[in-house]
Fold:
Amino acid sequence: MKTINKLIFTVFALLAVLTFNACDDFLDYAPKDRDTSDNFYQSPGDLQAATGPLYNLVWFDFNDKFFYGLGDGRGNNLFCPYSDKENDYITAYVTFTETQLTGSLVMAWQSFYNVVSQSDNVINNIRNRATNVTEEQKNAAIAEARFMRGTAYWYLASTWGDVIIYEDQTKLIDNYVVPKNPRLDVMEFAIRDLEFAAKYLPETTASWRVTRYSAFGMLSRLYLSMAGLKGEGVNSGRRSQEYLDLAAKAAKIVCESDAYKLMDNYADLFKVANNNNSESLFALQWIANGEYGVKNTQQAYFAYSPKITGFTDGWGSYAIASYEMINFYDKRDQVRRKATWMGKGDFYPEIDIANGGFTADNPDHNMANIKKGVVGSAKDNDGKVSFMGSALNTYMLRLAEVYLIYTEAVLGNNTSTSDPQALEYFNMVRTRTKDLPAVTAITYKDIQYERRAELAMEGQYWYDLVRRSYYQQQEVLNYLNDQERETIYNFDPIANTVEKLDNAPSHDVVKATPDKLLLPIPESEISKNPLLSKDKEPVPYTFTEEKITDLF
Structure:
């Protein structure tokens, strides 16, 4: 694969980039005068330098467009009404018309395998070359890399299903025509990586690095996925109780920890000044003034005008909340709505601070533009914004999600639950806005509402639907086909009203069918490895390590 061949030297390129940008705290670990092969891995600082790049550049092509294009566009949170159907930014995913050539799809595949390859490099180099460090230090660094690799494989399994598992890309250089592995094996491989991470990562570390609790939180998400895959069938409505119990156990470890807590103010989560806050379990780390590839480009695509960013970007005038999304919110749930979507008349004191704040007033339409990810100018953010870049972290896992995972795992195969701990964690998320009342019983629909409202524009909603489809496939397909995916509207945030308009664009949305629950593998990859094609059967993976059995 092209992806594999070009990644042999990735670690050196990454470290060079980080050295160049060593002004930020999390870059202080980058090596400066040391060979990164035989003479590297000689101290704890070297180990941290090796794992540091796993927090940004390797994820860039995923974060740039695919993160929200699929995660929110496909789930019909996000819409771009006047782009053509071939647009691979949002519309292709909204309309189920992406192909093997869709640009952001190709880049995401490569990005996930960048993470895998770079993690493999770190793991194998530490195992084979590290000296002058303790076994505990080696295991912690390997665990950090395995956390990243396991997360990438969860995305690969959730998005494409059967994909290739590899632990050493150098073995594929001479022969990269190797078979796919079954989705269940890919998910199991990801789980084993995260279980290793949960066992060997430290409980506390630098504010931006993952910890033991990060691993247990991510494990809870993976166990919940596996509960559906290991259930009684795609339309059985029943998940594996074994994996539901594991999801609850893993989530509970995080929920009961004193190391993390919810932020008091939901909107504060999405400010550069609050990066790596008490709620962040895993976040991608970006450098506003770094080179392209290590900064968060999302504001450039989300902000509706350059007057917000202070540069000539701000191209998101018609990147909007879908009609269904903006109409979805409980009328009392305006704190989360406003922090996620800005309507005409919404006021934001953190933008254009020098002039007393910013009132949204997009002259192009009266729909709701994206707010989450839009942070304002460099002046508003202590210089941490540049053209097509900001330093705003990308949340990959937050404590609020783990609270909701615990609740869903406890609900399990029941129609409702009044479990006291589940109610406690669920209501902590729900009532943070101060406008929604606590509930005394929880159904799946309650959890679906909270996850969608809480995590909108954080790339999760499509994966929520995919996870549901493992055991309620027809329900999910019906839901997708009943959605309004082309409706335009007038939104008045002051009156809190939504008016449907008649002159909707037409993109000929394709019907959601079981095959649309997975994306096509890029044509460029299949041309190099025909065994990736849809008609080729996957081959079971041979696991080389014993499964960890003493986590709980």
In short: The radius of gyration is 22 Å. The first helix runs from residue 2 to 5. The mean pLDDT is 92. Residues 1-201+522-552 form a domain with the Serine Threonine Protein Phosphatase 5, Tetratricopeptide repeat fold (CATH 1.25.40.390).
